Amino acid sequence: MSDQRNLILAFAISMGILLIWNMYVSPPPPPAEPAVSSEVPNAPANANTPTPSPQPGKGADAVVAREQAIENTPRLPINSPSLKGSIALKGGRIDDLIFTKYFTTVEQETPEILLSPAKTVGGYYANLGWVAASGQAVAVPGADTIWTPDGDELTPNRPVTLTWDNGAGLTFERRIEVDDDYMFTITQRVRATGSVAATLIPYGLVARLDTPKTAGIFVLHEGPLGVFDSTLKTLSYSDMREDGPVTRESTGGWIGITDKYWMTALIPDQSAQVMGRFVHTNTGRDRYQTDFIYKSAIAVSPGQDAVVTTRLFAGAKEVDLINNYRKAFDIDRFDLTIDWGWFVFLTKPFFWALHQIHGFVGNFGIAILGLTVLIKLVFFPLANTSYKSLAKMKAMQPRMKEIRERYFSRYMFDPKVSNLTGGRKQFVVSEYKLRC
């Protein structure tokens, strides 16, 4: 009982130290900028200020059933081994994704939904685009743009290119590719077919409407996050509502929104200088947006092209898959998408061992039992020494009891009273007498 009490006390003290550290030692959040009502992020000053597109109002955000929202918009189907869904040809948003390997029930009757159109409850989508530098009257794709696809379905073996002509000498293209898992590669190209040059700035965003229900575990982050110059930045939904927009400059990195098991993140060119932003607005519904915009504008001269490649991860946070993406595309600290908690020095090795055992036996129940046996074997020398000590103490107990009864209970104290300085009295032991 004493050992258990000490263990609980040590754990409580450790938690208290960690909480005090987070409250008083962690650096404060950066000062918030004024609220921005535009969906399109603002460009940095050195890239000129773009003309933002208007934020949808209450009428545009009216909630409808998911099936109705999908049926009311022309769409390009997505079909891969891990994802099914569609791309909205009006606006070019990727806003309809369903898992094919994960379900909401064990009966596998209802697949897990990741992305949904903005007009649905919990609308959640990603989009890319361009903004024109200030002072230029350049028509760029917007929320009402109707894109023309060159295929009838997006699959891992059949990329699709969406095209839109602004009618003023610029043709916009989006070549969209998807792999067998959860990574989209989107190559945006602007062709200047007329005689007028244009200066454009690429951006990307992940937006979520309504406040999602989270697990509420203080050691697990759910909400907006991103890596800027190899440093992870996380915000809760309440932080975004209370603190206002937060911006971060970075070379490369990534930004998005994570749930306990799923995540949607945009990954710009890892050599590009970008400005990342976390912003919350409310026009009848809470809207949480993470976005990035290039710090430098791109000039498109007549007869030339401008090309920008962005990746979109939309799927399950599988450890091996995340690590493979980080290595394959050299994504800065992409492994931080998985939150291992405060005790990462324990949770990560334990997960690795459990994962390896599961890969061998193919059953998580047996894998857990195997990991338990493995831990017992690793700590067997210490446990064995402890067991031997306990056995020796148990064998000595009868002899110790005999000695205690024979000797210690027979001490006789003959106290005498002596006057001390100040008139106080106390009992002192004059001698010990032992009867044999």
Description of the structure:
The protein has 436 residues and is an alpha+beta fold. It has helices at 2-24, 66-71, 237-243, 319-328, 344-361, 364-378, 380-406, and strands spanning 75-79, 83-88, 94-103, 111-115, 124-132, 148-149, 160-165, 170-178, 183-192, 198-209, 223-228, 231-234, 246-251, 254-258, 262-267, 273-282, 286-294, 298-300, 305-316, 412-419, 425-433. α5 crosses α6. Mean pLDDT is 83; it is low at 21-37, 46-60 and 412-436. The protein starts with a helix and ends with a strand. Strands 6-7-8-9-19-15-14-11-12 form a 9-stranded antiparallel beta sheet, with no helix packed on it.
What are the main properties of this structure?
single chain, 436 residues, alpha+beta, nine-stranded antiparallel beta sheet, six-stranded antiparallel beta sheet, elongated
Largest sheet composition: 9 strands, antiparallel
Percent of residues in helices:
10-25%
Oligomer: single chain
Which geometry do the CA atoms define? elongated
Q: Please give the number of β-strands.
A: 21
Structural class: alpha+beta
Query: In terms of per-residue confidence, which ranges show pLDDT below 50 for 5 or more consecutive residues?
Result: 21-37, 46-60, 412-436
Count every helix, treating DSSP H or I runs of 4 or more residues as helices.
Answer: 7
Please provide the ordered H/E string of secondary-structure elements.
HHEEEEEEEEEEEEHEEEEEEEHHHHEE
N→C terminal distance: 37 Å
* Percentage of residues in DSSP E strands: 25-35%
Mean pLDDT: 83
Based on CA atoms alone, the radius of gyration comes out at 32 Å
Strand order of the largest sheet: 6-7-8-9-19-15-14-11-12
